[in-house]
Design goal:
Strand order of the largest sheet: 7-21-22-20-19-16-17-18
Number of domains: 3
Distance between the termini: 58 Å
Helix content: 10-25%
Number of helices: 10
Strand content: 25-35%
CATH architecture of the largest domain: 3-Layer(aba) Sandwich
CATH topology of the largest domain: Rossmann fold
Largest sheet: 8 strands, mixed
Structural class: alpha/beta
Amino acid sequence: MVRVESLDLEGRGVARVAGKVTFIDAALPGESVEIQIWRRKPRFDLANAVRILRASSMRVAPRCPHYERCGGCSLQHLDPRAQVAIKQRVLEDNLARIGRVQPEIILPPIHGLAWQYRHRARMSVRLVTRKGGVLVGFHERRTHYVVDMDSCEVLPQRISALIAPLRAALSELTLAARIPQVEIAVGEERDVLTLRVLDPPSPCDLVRLRAFARQFGIDLYLQPGGPATSQPLDPSTARPLFYRLPEFDVALSFRPTDFTQVNHAVNQILVRRAIALLDPQPGEQVADMFCGLGNFTLPLARRGARVTGLEGSPDLVAQGIENARRNGLAELASFRSADLYRDPAEALQSLPRLDKMLLDPPRDGAAALIQALGAQAPRRLVYVSCNPATLARDAGVLVSEKGYRFSAAGVVNMFPHTSHVESIALFEREA
């Protein structure tokens, strides 16, 4: 019998067995469990919980029938409210341990629906003859096998219902063995499935795919190479994807392979909080770093600030410019391509003196950009993070080297039932 002490960043139970750290899948803090070790390493072991002897009050029955095997979720056995609380603790622990900082205020967590929230997903496709055809799903845990699934509880119901008919349709194609993945993109008025195709479809394949798209009222895209090669199967009928931020009277168009937040409802709350924390005023100069296609840029501009969005992807910059034009914000919101990892100092020098800044970097964080902040650094900075470890590292530098107060921080449960921790933080300094 093993007693579980805590959860790690991947949602695994943490225990000490004979003095050695052991990470246990599907175990929760406070539980007593029987385990089976499946991998031994010099400094730690990996194990499965094979029997729960004393269950946590936070344990719930997983809703998805595929949960035991599917690698898409890791926390369905934990009550959704407890998931949020544990993610808040993970954030605070990282800030204290890595950054040696503590926010003055812990913000209320941002969360929304626990199910049917995921508006973006990439699922594997594999022809498995002994299974009767094509499988469409996420990878099994710890393997490259594709889960034999016909539904998904975190996808919108109409998308989940497409899995079985999509499997049947793809199984009929001569191209069936040459489609490794399908990417799902859900918009306000249209849904798109993008098929990665390693060979051109035959004329018969095209007929079958068009019939499937018509029957289920979706747009199909084919992607023969990288994301930029994605094209609609029928350009004449394909409609643009977009999502709205109604509080700011903004609609953002995006392509099926563009990066957007997977949880549209929680994203609306996140944008609201980011704007409230940054508090842009008419005429202020604001920079939106790692701006993407304008998720924060355009709401900042709607408040009257003059906003410059900087982004490493020229394609996303082009999308941002077009979104600013369509929303009547081209006078206040501009977009530039900039490498904020290799030469952030040059990017900062190209900007007017900033009053405020918003950062929404990838998982690697914004270390180089923060180091480049000089004497004219903005007096207020909001940092949206998808990795508590890199946020903690960067927060430590902002406080110890750049003269900022760590005013507030809190978690954003963008990905319920996963161990992914998104967060938002506010830093302030004297002008």
